[in-house]
Amino acid sequence: MVKPAYEQRKELEEILKKELMEEISPEAETVGSKEGSKVHSGSIEFDIKPEELESYLNKYVVGQEEAIEIIATKVCTHFNRMKIENAIPEDERLVGNIKSNMLLIGPTGVGKTYIVKLIAKRIGVPFVKADATKFSETGYVGGDVEDLVRDLVHEADGDIRKAEYGIIYLDEIDKIASSGTMYGPDVSRTGVQRNLLKLMEEAEVDLKTPHDLASQVEAAMEAQRTGRITRKKINTRNILFIVSGAFNGLQEIISKRLNMQKIGFEKAPASVTDKQNLLKKLSTEDLIRFGFESEFVGRLPVHIVLNELTVEGLYNILKNRYSTVVLGKKLDFRAYDIDLSFTDEALMMLAKQAYQEKTGARGLLSVFEKTLIKFEKTLPSTEIRQLIVDKNVVESPDRVLSEMLLNDSIKSFQKNYLIRHGIFLEFDEEALRMVQDLASKNRKSIKQLCEDLFHDYHHGIKLMGMDSFKITTEAVQNPSGYLENYIKMNYNKQSKGAS
Ligand SMILES: Nc1ncnc2c1ncn2[C@@H]1O[C@H](COP(=O)(O)OP(=O)(O)OP(=O)(O)O)[C@@H](O)[C@H]1O
Ligand SMILES: [Mg+2]
Question: Where are the domains of the chain?
Answer without folding.
Answer: 31-305, 311-395, 401-498
